[in-house]
Protein: DNA primase/nucleoside triphosphatase C-terminal domain-containing protein
Amino acid sequence: MAGAMWPKVEGAWAANSDVMTSYANWCAAHGYEPKKAKSLSQALAAHGLEVGVRQWIYTSPGMRTKIRGVRGLRVHDCYQTSNTAGDRLP
Structure:
């Protein structure tokens, strides 16, 4: 699934909320019933992606929080709902 839907990208990271939104939109566009979060996570891990990776994200100027996501995955901007792309701390 990851290879067909999302290519594995070295160094990429996507928030779980963005992954689920992108996946649900992809399923709707292609006539599939989306899996539950746990099943999707297991499928992504089976395709070599690292799931449950916590990363610091800036939520507003001077404010940050740690959220979980998938390493090795980049979602398309048209499906991204949160502002997590490129907000990684050095």
